[in-house]
Amino acid sequence: MARHFDLGDARGRERMMRDVAKLLRQLRPDLMADEHRHRSPAGFGSWAEHWSKAVAVELSLEESESRHDHVGIWGAMVCRWAREQDAEPRFLAPALAQAFLQSERPLLTPSLPRDLPCFRLFLPKATLYSEEGPEIRSVLVADVRAMEGWLPDNFRLAGGGLACVGLGEDGATQASSLLDPSAKAQQPEHTDFSAPHWEWDADGVKGTAARMEQLCVHALLVQLYVPELVSEGEVPAAGGGKGFGGKPAGSSAGKGGEVPRPVWLGKDYQLQRQAAELPDLPAGSWQRGHWRPLSPLEDPLAAPLEWVEPVLAG
Hints:
Helices cover 30% and strands 17% of the residues. The protein is of the alpha/beta class. The chain has a 7-stranded mixed beta sheet with strand order 5-4-3-2-1-7-6, with helices on both faces. Strands 8-12-9 form a 3-stranded mixed beta sheet, with no helix packed on it. It has a two-stranded antiparallel sheet with strand order 10-11. Strand 4 (162-168) and strand 5 form a beta hairpin. Helix 1 (7-27) packs across helix 2 and helix 2 packs across helix 4.
């Protein structure tokens, strides 16, 4: 059944993260220089919160190593990689997020273009929660192939794929890696990630990781193969506060001194709908989407892909 969370405890941990941001500004102003480089549109977690959480995770590497916390170590390395790569934010529109969750997840093949070594996926509110309860508002997504020559020698990778590191509202890290692109055994037992199935998932870790991977894989493929769903929006107005997400007077917007326009995935996307006329497709049910090779004459593992969108009946 759906899990119940201690919201009071979650709010306390969020207050703790605000204190961490203040401390980071004092102790590591070099790493916090881009805290106000971007502004998030309404309905998303703020860029400043995301940045301070990612810096905090990066700086926790030594502690994670001392505790042999492999999730923490991997999360710290991905956060550092994203910072060094100047990974940009992508804001996923709610309708497109819903369509992603109703589409089959394809295998990631070694021939996948390497155009995106890393990006930061900002999720609309109430899209993803950790197994402990707090919401995950952003995920760092890295192409493991691009990291292979950058990682320390003691890292052993099982191949290509994606590394996904979700940053929780309480500062916790949720990591998932799709390291073997051809191992079908690593694919989830079911591919329906709509909210009812996810909330009833008895294995919270598996449910969170699978849902996070689902969103990240489709976000990557849309940027590679469906450029018409990638667009710029208007720069949101600056916040007036001086707290966790507010921008102190006189502070720089980051590199270049100007706030970039937010890049959307599916800003104007509308779900595909059709009348519920078929007996095997009653109202409220989905005809699931999928990815297929653009040309049946090419090697299906190397051909460009096209997205067959999911369709909602009714």
